[in-house]
Fold:
Amino acid sequence: MAEPTITRIRECIRSLNYVVSIHAAEELDDDNITILDLENIILTGKIIERQRDPRTKEVKCVICGSTLSERHAETVVKIGRFQERCRIFQF
Structure:
């Protein structure tokens, strides 16, 4: 499986081809961050770490970027097994 790139992840965001986990949505709410902020973090950010699941071999990417109000933040994103959509797990 090819490693996800920031370009591919951004394509998912721009085409609204992503889902946000319940955990990530709760974290966004707790931190007063909107979905538009989350999108901006990914669109302006860069991958700072890749984490490989030892069982499934899937790769999660930690992305660091900026909210619309220029606050620095990180999120964890995974592209589905068949590259069909991005899944945002943590914020």
About this structure: The domain at 6-90 is CATH 3.30.2310 (YaeB-like fold). The chain has a mean pLDDT of 87.
